[in-house]
Amino acid sequence: MKNIITQFSRLFVGILFIISGLIKLNDPIGFSYKLDEYFSEPVFNMPFFIPFTLAIALFLVILEVVLGVLLLIGYKSKNTIWSLLLLVVLFTFLTFYSAYFNVVKDCGCFGDALHLTPWQSFSKDIILLFFILILFFNKKLIKPLFSNSIQNTITYLSIGLCAFMGYWVINHLPLKDFRPYKVGTNIRTSMEIPENAAKSQVEMVFIYKVNGVDKEFTEKDLMSLPEGATFVDRIDKVIVQGYVPPIHDFKLELEGQDNTQIILSKDKVLLIVAYNLEKSNTEVLKNNVKLYEKALSKGYYVAMLTGSSKEVISSVKMKYRIPFDILFCDATTLKTIERANPSFVLLNYGTIKQKVHYNDIDDLKL
């Protein structure tokens, strides 16, 4: 019985690590954005790690896949299980911290393929920790499946294939797009809320400074505020989350005017998505005029979307002599649409027809 439980744990942990790692390896840039949240000020306040989040993300997801493979084939089981234990303890700490302090809404454990709440993520890690502890206390039952030469070949091959996959998706596109802006999606339809959809329950919370300390009060408490309390702010706290449409933050502004519906109503639209113009590929920006002229000759409306400030927009427009509109859109939304900076998106009446990385601009089907 002990051996059966151990071998089941081996399969369960190994397969789960491989699946979880491959989903994140499919989109390591997206996982790096999640690490940015952990390293930012509201959470651990470690901004010195932020420039290295993509490298850290790649290392972690490759390690996750490779450890899953090593466990399944029984390669150096003692070291493999120790590594798995340390990794899952780290993940358990992060998910508990996120859930308890409500600082990161989604740990990104399964990328955009499966969104878990913070407490669901923590529960998943507790279950995983349980099975890894079974392996830890029964290491002697984990036997290698192949000879040393075959084991080594599988190990190096898995590392090499993972590294190549990471390189490919960073320089092109994810092999599988799990995001709400995938090709074939109609943005307008995905923004709609059904009439019978569940509505959010929101409570107004008032913040007053009492003896130098900010304290929260409900609407009922306002009639009995402490003497000397000074109003600071009012926030809406969601008690029960209602229906949230797949796309809920797509808003395009041109000089302060909302142009979202105007653009979604056009039959031929080319959007150049650059969430940060200061970090955008300069060679691509230089060639945008040629692309604009080609698209214009085929009847396309061309615009650039960015989350950069007005000052940066004006500077870039002047520097590269950009003749088309540059619209403001939330940077987080643009990162969700596409990971490359910039990338190119074709729309037809709000439906996404094609998305390409700037390295694949020749594949754009105007």
From TrEMBL:
Membrane topology: Multi-pass membrane protein
Transmembrane segments: 7-26, 46-73, 80-101, 121-138, 150-170
Gene Ontology annotations of biological process type: methylamine metabolic process
Annotated compartments: Membrane
A cellular component annotation (GO) from this entry: membrane
Xref: InterPro entries: Methylamine_util_MauE
Every Methylamine utilisation protein MauE domain range: 3-136
Keywords from the UniProt entry: Membrane, Transmembrane, Transmembrane helix
UniProt protein name: DoxX family membrane protein
